[in-house]
Structure formats: C-alpha cells, structure tokens
Amino acid sequence: MFEGVLIRAYGGxxxxxxxxxxxxxxxxxxxxxxxGSAALxxxxxxxxxxxxxxxxxxxxxxxxxxxxxxxxxxxxxxxxVFAVQNPEPNLPLLDRFLVLAENAGVSPxxxxxxxxxxxxxxxxxxxxxxxxxxxxxxxxxxxxxxGIDELRQLLVGKTSVFAGPSGVGKSSLLNAVQPGLxxxxxxxxxxxxxxxxxxxxxxxxxxxxxxFVVDSPGFSSLDLPEMEREELGYYFPEFAGFTxxxxxxxxxxxxxxxxxxxxxxxxxxxxxxxxxxxxxFLDEVMQQERRY
Length: 292
Known about the structure:
The chain is α/β, with parallel strands linked by helices. The chain has three domains: 2-60, CATH 2.40.50.140; 66-215, 3-Layer(aba) Sandwich (Rossmann fold); 229-291, Ribonucleotide Reductase Protein R1, domain 1. The chain has seven helices and 13 strands. The protein has helices spanning 29-32, 91-104, 125-133, 148-155, 170-177, 260-266, 272-291; strands at 2-10, 13-18, 21-27, 44-51, 54-60, 66-68, 71-73, 77-83, 107-113, 137-139, 159-163, 203-206, 212-215. The protein is globular and about 70 Å long. 36% of the residues are buried.
C-alpha cells in the first residue's frame, strides 16, 4: 500500500499521483456504499496496487480543508477570479465566494482579470475596497501579460483552487501561468452575456514551480455553507474593529440597538453594499437554520 494525491476523478475511475506516476484506481466498496468518506480531488489517499499501474483506494486520509463547490479537499488558497467586463463583475457573488473560503479555512485571493479592457489606468473602486479590507488582490491580463508573474508567485508551494463565474478567464490564466497546460477556453455568449462552461470536471494540476492548481467548472450561483447565524459576521473582516463596542454579546448587526457595526456603516467606515450583502446572507443562514 502507498500514499498518493487524488488529482482527478471521472468515468468511475480515480487517478492518483505517486511521484511522477499516475495510477488509475477504483474505490473500495465501503466508499461506494456510502459507509466511508467519499474521495475528493485533493485528498491524500492510501492505495493498494492491483496490477500494472492500477490500484484500489482503501483509505482517505483526514482533510485539513474541504470545499463543496467546487468539491475539492486540502486546499490552501482560493483564487477568486472576476473580469473587468465580459462578464460584468458580480460583487454579491464575490462576497459569497469569500464567505465560503473563510468558512472552509481557505485563504482567498481576489483576482481581477481582463485588465486590458479597463479604460485608461483607472483601477476599479471595488478592488481598492477589497484590498483595504485586507484581501490579497492581483490584476491580470492574459493578452498583455500584466500580473501573470505576480499571480504565478502567489501559487508557488501551495494548493490553490481557481474559482469564479464562467467566462472570466480562469483556464486562460492557468494556461498563462504555466504554458503547456493547454486547457480549453471559451468565448462569452453574445446572447446570454455569460461564459460557456469549458471545464467539465475538477482536476488537480501540478505546477513546474511547485504546488498544485485546480481548474473547475464555472457557475453563476452559489449556496452559502451551513453555519450558525452568529458565525457569519466573522467572515466580514471589516466588522472586527467595531464588534467589541456593540452593546450585546452575539450581536447580529441587524435589528439590535447600539450596534457599533451599524454606526460604522452610517459613518462610511464599512461599505454599505458589503453590509447589505451581509444582511442578505444573514437571512439565508437563518432560513437554513429553520430547515435543519
């Protein structure tokens, strides 16, 4: 039996990387019957050789992190990619990604792609906001090469997932970071104004400089993970400097009187749109609680 990393899974087979070798594996019966933890891309697994370079996954080792969309394990950071335009940035969706990453214990990086479409040298106001909050940011263009070296350095030695809506250029960015990956890319639909899905499955890709990246299917909607209502505020880092001054412990920063976060919003210290997204998410979390 040996240990390896599950790098892709499709067609009922699981492909495990052991050094420079790729083993085609099946799952032990207990996993298929739902008695064990299902294997995810990114899992470290124990494999029993069968014949040649084929084997059977007998054990999934404990995970340090787990994302459910895309379904991937043991990720260090999430590079959340949005475009300058084509498609237009969807900031409520970006905030959902950030909450998902924070909830999973994954460090987020905000990437603004297609910088060649920006008018002049003006930087988007919303990107400055996220940088001010404390999120690492990078501005890239696969056409001009801007920001590609900076993005490449952010990936070294880490396992990173590229996430974001379809059409923002995730696969193109990965091709630019490491020429030779030759991932399929697509154009924006002129009718639907959104990208075509060019990535059909989740796959872990080794980087020449060290580390792995995950290319995953894009999507335009995202459900929040299950959590306690009091937990959500911790995933908005800009609240942290004010919560100690709230009158009530466990303040939800909604209807409670003498809430320091609401005062910070009124004074412009906390962005109003981010706060409105927080309230929308809070309502969803409370509805989830009622269902469970």
